[in-house]
Design a protein that fits this description.
This protein has one domain. 62% of the residues lie in helices and 0% in strands. The longest helix has 21 residues. It has 199 residues and is mostly helical. It starts with 8 loop residues before the first helix and ends with a helix. It is globular and about 45 Å long. It contains ten helices and no strands. It comes from Moraxella lacunata.
Length: 199
Amino acid sequence: MKLFHLTAISLAMLLTVTACGGDKPSETTQEVKTETATETKTDTGIPAGIEKLIIQSPYMEFSVQSNRVFVVNHIKSESQLTPEQNACLLSLEGNPNYLEILEPYVKGILSDDDIKEADEFFASDAGRKFAEMMLKQMGAENLPPFVEPTDSEKAEIAKALLKPFFVKMKAKTDAMSEQEALDFMMSIVDKEKARCQIS
């Protein structure tokens, strides 16, 4: 079994959804800001430094969150962490490390249209509930209380699983050996250990 699935989207998402009918939300309150990135003076109430760490793509946000679960669990399995190191691993400051690896990987598999379709799904209520369910099953920390998807949302999730962004990612992930998947994730593990000063 592959401990670290590339974007965790295939392994986690697809396996669980097929089993449970899917659900969940990848928190994407930032999606609204995507079009207005030029207006730097708008008062968002978020400090500029933090705003730069927020991921604008709902799909990439989920990819980062799901991979963070695997990375943090792997680091915890081999190191005794202080509360500060644990908080560091879960912080937004790690987003650039994840994106540096995940963005080129995803863009090498999915077209712009595929990513747009994935963003639309993960920005929807059905997509957010699906993302939340997946993160919960992966063991993510500090999640809000889970809200069961409605029947129509379950139907949306089932439909999304047949779309190119799921099918292509699953095919790519299934083709990887366990060692390839581990090597892929270790590149993020190493960056995060260095950032949070974990030996």
